Amino acid sequence: MPVSARERVLEAVEGLIAEGGLRAVNIASVAAAAGVSRQTVYAQFGTREEMISESIAVMSSRALGEIIEHLESIEDPGEYVVELLVAGRAAFRDTPALAVLLFPDTDNPIFDSEVLAGAVPFAEAFVGPLFERAPHLQERRADVMETLLRFGLSVLTLDSDLIRTDEDLRGYLNRVLRPALGLSSV
């Protein structure tokens, strides 16, 4: 099935963001990367912001779908928490353009200083199932959400030799995060 001009534009936006951040994205650069005219880009997307917004939505949707699929069969609450963070990091590593959502210096128009507060409703979709698996955490719901958001952001943005591979990260989260949340260790 042939790729539409809209899909080529969105792929070009993702590639440009991955290579140079949001600053690299403008109508001319996208048109050149997608192999279409500037008029085609304008016809598909009215503004640069609309184009970037849709590209981020497509990337996010793809990554979130992969994370949700990975988590569906996990019943153990501790394993769920560990795999949520491992899968989240893998999604960001597989889609480098998503990193612009985390760093203010990438000219990200949606970044603000209240990133944790804004992330809570988004995170609820992933963390909500944890409370079904571990109802005893419900009374500490706000603390659990805050802990997972902070751990999640650090896992996405900070790397070290201790957690370089997925298996290393799993081990670390099993040793540190599970006990911190009051979930049995493996």
UniProtKB/TrEMBL annotation:
Residues 26-45 bind DNA. Residues 3-63 form the HTH tetR-type domain. Keywords: DNA-binding. It holds the Pfam family TetR_N. It comes from the Bacteria. InterPro entries: Homeodomain-like_sf, HTH-type_TetR-like_transc_reg, HTH_TetR. This is TetR/AcrR family transcriptional regulator. It comes from Sporichthya brevicatena. The lineage of its organism: Bacteria, Bacillati, Actinomycetota, Actinomycetes, Sporichthyales.
